[in-house]
């Protein structure tokens, strides 16, 4: 059984914590934005974690719980994709982090576009304009339809985007490895 070399333990921790902190920060900012779209999305239709008169604190706690685990897992997988194996083609966290930021910006931009589209379609066509089945909404009200559509889209985009990010990191690593071994 192999163990991590001392030099790689530090990079493993950096990948884990750096990715988790980035994903958690994204989740908190995303959910605060979503709360401004529909306060009831979090205040009525989610559990209260902290008894407080500051609903945004509860929203931030929900985001922390929802993103910490996936952020740590993604950090581990990114470390494997970027660092495991041939030493000459290893990628730094900074290189991978830039790709993660691009993914998060694309996800949030797409979520905003989906939110805008769902609002227009629901205004124009009512239930016939829903982008998702009506059973996925706690209530058919404009702000909740937009918030729930954005949230479900973001979860799907995070899963698919994470797989694409891992693939892109491996491709980048192969390109680096080819440059190193080419005459």
Please provide a written account of the structure.
Helices cover 76% and strands 0% of the residues. α1 packs antiparallel against α3, α1 runs parallel beside α4 and α3 packs parallel to α5.
In short:
The protein has 183 residues and is mostly helical. It is 76% helix and 0% strand. Helix 1 (6-37) runs parallel beside helix 4 (93-125), helix 3 packs parallel to helix 5 and helix 4 (93-125) runs antiparallel to helix 5.
Order of helices and strands: HHHHH
Relative strand content: under 5%
Tell me, rounded to a whole number, the average pLDDT.
89
Q: What about the largest sheet?
A: none
Low-confidence stretches: none
Q: What gross morphology would you assign?
A: elongated
By secondary-structure content and strand pairing, the structural class works out as: mainly alpha
Number of strands: 0
Which tags fit this structure?
183 residues, mainly alpha, 5 helices
Summarize the SSE layout with pairings.
Layout: H1 6-37, H2 39-43, H3 55-83, H4 93-125, H5 142-181
